[in-house]
Design a protein that fits this description.
Helices cover 32% and strands 12% of the residues. The chain is an alpha+beta fold. The two termini are 33 Å apart.
Amino acid sequence: MKEENIIDLQIKGYTILKGWVNKKRINSINNKLPKLFNEHKKIREANNNGIVSEGVAMNVLASDDIFIDFIQEMIDRGLIDSIEKNYFKDTCILNSLTALSNIKTESNLFYKKVHRDIRGYSGNIPILLNLLVMLDDFTIENGGTLLLPYSHLKKEEPNKKFWEENYKQMVGKAGDIIIWNSNIFHASGINKT
């Protein structure tokens, strides 16, 4: 990460790495996802899991080597090292690797609601960090992720009015990566396309 990314992550609670993932890798991942979404849906159904989405594949790392290759690229290019040095100040553990598709008809799923990806507020203790790889262009129309800047600095959940007046919609190109402090309140935008 560049110095400006490190500062943004500390102050605003998020940063964007433009054009980090190349088109070849994006296309390879996108070609694998329909099969993975289908396989993971069947697993959830067999286990009576409440997540009914057509567009969720949890813990895909074990599903295809392409994800292991991507983690290796993040290591080789120094991204993991930078995160460990500048965010965790120590080594870190990959907790999960999930694929999500922002399906237009699925507007009431867990990732559409304003939430944190950490059960309790950890304050300035760096417990968890989110990395989102844009596999398609993120636009206002297709529901680019919504983040509430600076919300990693407060324990309290924002009220609806404050959220609606202050969230930032993440827009960008396929291959961009959004990194955010897991104390940041966020949600998936609504896909209108």
